[in-house]
Amino acid sequence: MIDRLFVGPGGRITVMATLEVFNFSGKKVSQAEFDDAVFAAPIKPYLHTEIVNWQRACNRAGTQSAMTKGEVNGATKKPFPQKGRGSARQGSLKNPHQIGGGVAFAPKPRDYSFAMPKAKRRAALVSVLSARMQEGRLKLMDELTFSEPKTKRVCELLANFNIDTCLLVDEANEMAMLSVRNHAKVKYLQEVGINVQDVLRYPMVLMTVAAARKLEKRLLG
Description:
Blueprint: E1 2-7, E2 13-22, E3 28-35, H1 36-39, H2 45-59, H3 118-134, E4 138-141, H4 151-160, E5 166-170, H5 174-180, E6 186-190, H6 196-201, E7 205-208, H7 209-220
C-alpha cells in the first residue's frame, strides 16, 4: 500500500492509498486509490466491542414471557384451613412455590435496543475496515462475475484466493446473492449493509472496487 498526498477542494489535504485489485482468479490486475481516512484510519478496538454489543442488543428478539401468579388460571380459594393440619399455611395454589403456580418477577416481552450515535457507528466501521486492511484480510476485486446462480463458482472463488470462508461485499448483484446463499461459510452483503459484526465474524473480506467507492463516499460524507 503506497500513500500520496492530495490537496482537495477548500485546501483539505487528503492522504491517498494505492491498493491492489485482484480478479476472480485471485491474480493482481490493477491498482486503485482510496482515502486513508477509510481504509488506513487509527484502529479503535473499544469501538468494535461497543458497536457489536449494540448490534446484538438491537437484534435480540425480546419475546421471552412467563405468567405471574395473577395471570395463572385457577381458583383463588384458600387450599386448606390456616390451622389444625400441622403443615405450613398456604394462601393460594397459584403462588410461585406451588407446582403449576406463577413465576416470581416473570420476564415479559421488551425491547433491548438502545440508541447509538451515527458518528460512533461510522467511526467503528472505518476502524474495523482499516484493521482488516492492515492485517491483509481485506482484498479488492475488480468485479464479481456470476452468469447464473452457481454455488460451484463460489467454491472456485475461495480456492482462487486460498481461503475457506469470507464475506463478499458488492453492489446489488442478484446472481452473487443466489450463488452464495447455499454456502455455509460465505455471506453476501450489499455495500449499504456492511456492518462491524459481520466484518469481525469473517476472517476474510472480499469487496469489489465499485462497492468500495460507494462505501468510501458514504463514510466520508
